[in-house]
Design a protein that fits this description.
The protein has 12 helices and 12 strands. It is of the alpha/beta class. It is globular. The protein binds adenosine-5'-diphosphate and magnesium ion (MG).
């Protein structure tokens, strides 16, 4: 198994009101060639901070990596210069966001934007770039791609715009594709089409994927490995089979209970009561303690380290004896 990315003990801090505050910490995971790693957790758990730190796409006026390493292609991305990062990221690592409108320029046609992007990575003529762009739009199943090259972003539906983003992200044949809630803004049927499309293309191009979602239903369909994050830390990490068949962390169990079932006609209510603590207000003990059905006095006082459980990692005192 070829390892394409390895993140070790990553910590990203934000400078807020002249104080450096950790947004995510002690984040470790790896991604193997051709595999999909899902990062899952509720809103505010640090998924986007983790993903954007790989490509350094965070707001660098306040954020910086203060610990850890991001190993890719024998380099540590955490130590590269901004210029090196920009070269690697357009070519070998691409990212797709929840709202494609924010990454597209409203005043240029899709064709102009695709051609410019393609030519910034490949020394080819405008005509060749045009043909390649049309080919990519065809790959993401946009009807009449040649005609649509002349359209502006607002002339596409949300789902079609996300297809354009996928076409752009894959046009440089990246080794890693990072998708941050790519279908959250789309309705359920379009969501499924887009996820399947990403999966098919990923497979045919041998790309590895980091897929970020708050939806365990998406994880169930897509993941090889799963990293569960809560309040800026990893709480459980294992292959998807183990996570679904044998979830260990009380937070993972709570998330699994919130998967809507196919026959449910009504929207499921979240089953974990309470909210994720914010980075300026982290409890000193386990960050999940006040929402946890298994919470003890120790949990309130001291956060758990990660324990080795069933071939994976779990951050919960319930597993303390297993570690010894
Ligand atoms: N620009 C910012 N300024 C201050 N806090 C931020 C900023 N961006 C993210 N955060 C905080 O960092 C934490 C992690 O956020 P994020 O990675 O966006 O979560 P997720 O993607 O899992 O919803 C949250 O507590 C969020 O409020
Ligand atoms: Mg996010």
């Amino acid at each position: 198994m070829e390892r394409v990315l390895e993140v070790n003990n990553l910590k990203v801090e934000f400078m807020l009101k002249k104080k450096s505050i950790p947004a995510v910490e002690d984040i470790s995971f790896h991604l193997d060639k051709g595999k999909t790693l899902c990062i899952v957790g509720e809103s505010g758990c640090g998924k986007s901070v983790t993903a954007t730190s790989i490509m350094r796409l965070y707001d660098s006026s306040i954020a910086r990596i203060t610990e850890g390493s991001i190993l890719f292609d024998q380099k540590d991305l955490a130590k590269c210069t901004d210029k090196e990062i920009r070269e690697i990221c357009g070519k070998d690592i691409s990212m797709i966001f929840q709202e494609p409108m924010t990454s597209l320029n409203p005043v240029y046609t899709i064709g102009q934007q695709m051609i410019e992007m393609i030519r910034s990575h490949q020394k080819i003529s405008k005509k060749e770039a045009f043909d390649y762009a049309v080919q990519m739009l065809e790959k993401v199943k946009i009807p009449e791609p040649e005609k649509r090259m002349k359209d502006y972003p607002h002339q596409f539906s949300g789902g079609m715009r996300q297809r354009v983003m996928i076409a752009m992200a894959l046009s440089c044949k990246p080794k890693i594709l990072i998708c941050d809630e790519p279908t959250t803004a789309l309705d359920v049927t379009v969501q499924k089409q887009i996820l399947n499309l990403i999966d098919d293309l990923k497979e045919s191009m041998g790309t590895s994927e980091i897929l970020i979602t708050h939806d365990m239903g998406v994880v169930a369909e897509m993941a090889d490995d799963t990293l569960v994050m809560y309040a800026g830390k990893v709480v459980e990490y294992n292959n998807a089979d183990e996570i679904f068949r044998n979830p260990q962390h009380p937070y993972t169990r709570g998330l699994l209970k919130s998967i809507p079932h196919i026959n449910d006609s009504v929207e499921m209510l979240p089953t974990i009561e309470g909210t994720v603590p914010t980075i300026v207000n982290m409890p000193k003990g386990c960050r999940f303690a006040d929402r946890c059905p298994s919470c003890t006095q120790k949990c309130k006082e001291q956060d758990s380290p990660l324990f080795d459980v069933n071939g994976g990692k779990v951050r919960c005192w319930l597993y303390e004896k297993d570690a010894k």
